[in-house]
Amino acid sequence: MNKKNINKKIIYCTVAIGVIGIISAGIYRHHKIKTYNMLLNEANNNLKSYKYDEAIILFKEAMKYKKDLGIKNSINLAEKLKINKKSYENALSFMKEERYLDAIDNFKKVSDIDKNLYKDSQKNIEECKKSLVSKNIMLSKESVSNNDYSKDNKYITDITNIDNNKEVKQLQKPMNKKIKSYPQKSENIEKKSQIINRNINKPVSKQQAEDKIKNYIKSTSQEIPNLKVEYDHDDTKSGRKYFVIHVYCIVDDHTATMGWYYVNEQDGKCSKWDLAEDKLVPLT
């Protein structure tokens, strides 16, 4: 075998190895792209089917094959949609239990990032308002007929958080007449203002926030059986952090919300959430 033949064989072997390498790389790349596309399609299908946990897992798996900003955005979207869905499901559960104020609160958390859930939530908010007003008007009338004005006061409060209509005003008349016969509390308007604004412009703790609302309720309301004033959660509105205090009554086998109060964590200023207008009204 001469030198020329040896060189030819070396060239042939080199070319063959190169061709095999190119083919192998092509097969691997094809398999990688195929797997990536399969994961992406399945993730998007899960996203459309409200299976957000499954979608997030598949999107993250696809990221192992290709780093893509679009996938990161899809993961963020799935996380937001997951929270949206949870708020919607909680609201439906509260609605089924006839806890209409809690249901409305959760329906309001559903954003228009999901058009269908948002549309249903807005519709259900109106249904909850109608059901709450109808239910509490009936309960209020029963309480008045039984001279149980403490319960009547609670039912009227729940209604006026939603709809201060003419029928509600008529229901308030016997209650107000009865309340006038009660011994008045010694605190006047100035005293009430001092109570709610005590230690204002100073940071407050959760317990202090709860105590401020308890004192306010005691100074402005008649005694109501089974009334509870409790810290519920933190919230942020217009860049300000608040402790959210839930005021409610235990009636039979369920709770009836009387109001949601917000206490600014930084300065201790207190407000009541106006559900109908979705805004905070400062307490004075």
Automatic annotation (TrEMBL):
Keyword Coiled coil assigned: yes
InterPro entries: TPR-like_helical_dom_sf (IPR011990)
Coiled coil ranges: 71-98
Membrane-crossing segments per the record: 10-28
UniProt keyword Membrane present: yes
Protein keywords: Coiled coil, Membrane, Transmembrane, Transmembrane helix
Name listed for the protein in its UniProt record: Tetratricopeptide repeat protein
